[in-house]
Request: fold
Amino acid sequence: MGEYIPFRSILGGLIGRLSPMEASMIHGAPNQQFETPFGRAIGGICFDSAFSSLFRNQAANGGEFILTASNNDPYNDAMKLQHEAQDIMRSIETDRWAARATNTGFSSIVDPHGQVEWRSPSNVYTVHAHTIYRRQGQTLYVRWGDWLLIVLLVGGAIAWTKQLQPR
Reply:
């Protein structure tokens, strides 16, 4: 609800009062990715990072690493770190390296295990060179999506109810 406001004619006034963002853009394609000289990139723009299915679909369709660009200027450091945490989760879920670029921090390089290899300071303009690697494997999440969560929840519920039964 930052750059793009769904149902703008209905929600626009309310969101306009709540959001620190002044502009509204059009939404992108759910399978956005692009070819680079280094391989096929999974493209994420700002709040896309909150939607794991966007990154999962792009990884399933050949995306080899994640590039995310974000405008974090309106937010405090806690919110910036929370936003970065979403990219860290997308990196783990897809088993991809991620390069995150922001205008006011926190820019970062994240390995496929969620380890932050480099993070910029907040509100400091900086340039950083780092090597990231292309990856083509598919995690269970990339292959099966949210079905894995459903299977785990059902399995957990069965185990829990068996513990409740008197012996």
